[in-house]
């Protein structure tokens, strides 16, 4: 079901802005975030999360074994998308 929703969003280019409370939360799946020192040992993708107190999007390394995060979380494919979804709240 989640995969179907993601496919529909990508195909129709729908975008919904996140609630400001979601932009304040760090991704809850901490086991999916790869530390900088371990980046060579784990397959990962580079993603961005909004750091509310610094008003900045930060690079994170998201483990591939976790799959794609849900579209309504503070976890973005690009820095531009991160700022467009969460930068306006700050």
TrEMBL record:
Keywords on record: Signal
Keyword Mitochondrion: no
Signal peptide bounds: 1-17
Highest taxon, organism lineage: Eukaryota
Residue ranges of coiled coil: none
GO molecular function: serine-type endopeptidase inhibitor activity
Name of this chain's protein: BPTI/Kunitz inhibitor domain-containing protein
Record organism: Pieris brassicae
């Amino acid at each position: 079901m989640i995969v179907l929703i993601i496919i529909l969003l990508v195909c129709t280019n729908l975008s919904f802005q996140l609630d400001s409370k979601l932009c304040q939360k760090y991704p809850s799946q901490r086991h999916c975030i790869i530390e900088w020192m371990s980046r060579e040992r784990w397959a990962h993708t580079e993603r961005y999360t909004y750091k509310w107190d610094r008003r900045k999007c930060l690079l994170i390394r998201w483990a591939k074994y976790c799959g794609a995060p849900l579209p309504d979380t503070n976890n973005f494919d690009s820095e531009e998308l991160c700022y467009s979804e969460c930068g306006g709240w700050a």
